[in-house]
């Protein structure tokens, strides 16, 4: 522990982490305990469990969590472990149940987690003492977060206070999952998150993604611009301000809120304009789905970006949404899970073409996975030393790392105090 504290304390501001943070099994274990064991994690959406009895299983390190909608329509989460002899309870990622039945000895739990049937346990056996162990779960306008800690961070209420108005117009609860894609990236989870927190690499690596994006929306070095480029940057700033004014007048909160590294449950949001026809993240920048989300009547609602620490980012357009979660699988492997959401009444082949809907991010995710793999390969080499972040285009990567270092040091300080 002392070595980890020293590495965290002496981390050079504005630089990448030392190699062991991306490669060492012991640091990975600490990440799983502190970051993924004690913080709010994005794991899915309410449309993953649209009806009573629907269950979604999420595996996080050695833990498995069953998220379900109970018979009264409430979202609940439980450790996916039978209280008899510890058998895994739900085996499929998605299923629908009347009750939860253990395949081993047929113990039966209702959708509130209460044990309702257990044969041959004797007269003194108290079923009420053997219900499923609950896991904290919160829905943020349809985005589902869980926390494995006994006492979760209390600032989720502040996150909800700020973000609910931004998300509400898109009405995620009235959507469906049109497609889900799981991609195993060959890198440490922090490399995946660092890659997401900047677009310095986008121009050279993401020909599909950059079609509807304005380059000046993701940072630039003013001193490097020529006179024409400075004029374009000024025009973008004016357009952004005008768009924010118009969107907010129409009931769409849009202006930037950045709390990435000054809250335990760090987050950031902003609605940005889209280029071309300006309707969606598609190759032709036109809407991918004819049925718009929520009560929106104009597809030109920009792209609402929403990031949360430690493991998610999301994009909400007028016609569809794309949500992303990152779950560590090992020091050098991570699961990137992507879901595309459309209006619940949208019909594939009629209201949207699936290939068109998912095309941009399917290509972008694979490109990013390759880049993460290049980084993982590099940090494992003797020649790797921490390198500097761009102060103009990678400032949000620095905020992610600053948040990570702060959270790790806070926990280690608490551990020392108790000891």
UniProtKB/TrEMBL annotation:
Which cofactors does this gene product need?
Fe cation
Q: Which UniProt keywords apply?
A: 2Fe-2S, Dioxygenase, Iron, Iron-sulfur, Metal-binding, Oxidoreductase
Key word Iron present in the record? yes
Do you know which Pfam families this protein is assigned to? Rieske (PF00355), Ring_hydroxyl_A (PF00848)
Which InterPro entries would you find in this protein's record? Rieske_2Fe-2S, Rieske_2Fe-2S_sf, Ring_hydroxy_dOase_asu_C_dom, Rng_hydr_dOase-A
Q: Where is the Rieske domain?
A: 40-146
One GO molecular function term?
2 iron, 2 sulfur cluster binding
Q: State the protein's name.
A: Aromatic ring-hydroxylating dioxygenase subunit alpha
Protein source organism: Jiella endophytica
């Amino acid at each position: 522990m002392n070595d980890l504290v020293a590495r965290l304390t002496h981390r050079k501001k504005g630089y990448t982490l030392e190699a062991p943070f991306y490669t060492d099994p012991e640091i990975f274990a600490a990440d799983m305990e502190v970051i993924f064991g004690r913080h709010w994690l994005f794991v899915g959406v309410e449309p993953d469990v649209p009806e009573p009895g629907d269950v979604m299983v999420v595996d996080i390190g050695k833990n498995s969590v069953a998220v379900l909608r109970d018979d009264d329509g409430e979202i609940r989460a439980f450790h996916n472990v039978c209280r008899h002899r510890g058998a895994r309870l739900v085996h499929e990622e998605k299923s629908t149940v009347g009750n939860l039945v253990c395949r081993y000895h047929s113990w039966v739990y209702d959708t509130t987690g209460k044990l309702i049937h257990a044969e041959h346990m004797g007269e003194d056996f108290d079923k009420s003492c053997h219900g499923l162990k609950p896991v904290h779960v919160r829905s943020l306008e349809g985005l589902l977060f869980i926390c494995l800690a006994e006492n979760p961070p209390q600032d989720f209420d502040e996150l909800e206070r700020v973000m609910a108005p931004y998300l509400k117009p898109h009405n995620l609860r009235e959507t469906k999952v049109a497609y889900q894609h799981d991609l195993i990236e060959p890198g440490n989870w922090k490399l995946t998150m660092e890659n997401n927190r900047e677009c310095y690499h986008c121009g050279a690596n993401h020909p599909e993604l950059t079609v509807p994006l304005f380059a000046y929306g993701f940072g630039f070095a003013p001193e490097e611009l020529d006179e024409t480029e400075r004029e374009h940057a000024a025009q973008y700033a004016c357009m952004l301000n005008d768009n924010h004014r118009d969107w907010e007048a129409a009931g769409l909160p849009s202006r930037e809120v950045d709390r990435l590294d000054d809250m335990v449950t760090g987050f950031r949001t902003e609605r940005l304009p889209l280029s071309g026809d300006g309707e969606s993240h598609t190759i032709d920048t036109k809407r991918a789905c004819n049925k718009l989300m929520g009560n929106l009547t104009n597809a030109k609602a920009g792209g609402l970006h929403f990031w949360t620490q430690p493991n998610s980012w999301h994009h909400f357009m007028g016609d569809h949404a794309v949500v992303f979660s990152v779950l560590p699988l090992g020091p050098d492997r991570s699961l990137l899970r992507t879901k595309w959401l459309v209006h619940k009444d949208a019909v594939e082949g009629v209201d949207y073409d699936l290939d068109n809907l998912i095309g941009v991010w399917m290509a972008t995710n694979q490109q990013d996975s390759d880049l993460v793999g290049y980084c993982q390969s590099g940090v494992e080499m003797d020649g790797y030393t921490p390198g500097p972040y761009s102060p103009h285009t990678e400032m949000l990567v620095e905020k992610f790392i600053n948040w990570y270092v702060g959270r790790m040091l806070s926990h280690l300080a608490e551990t020392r105090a108790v000891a």
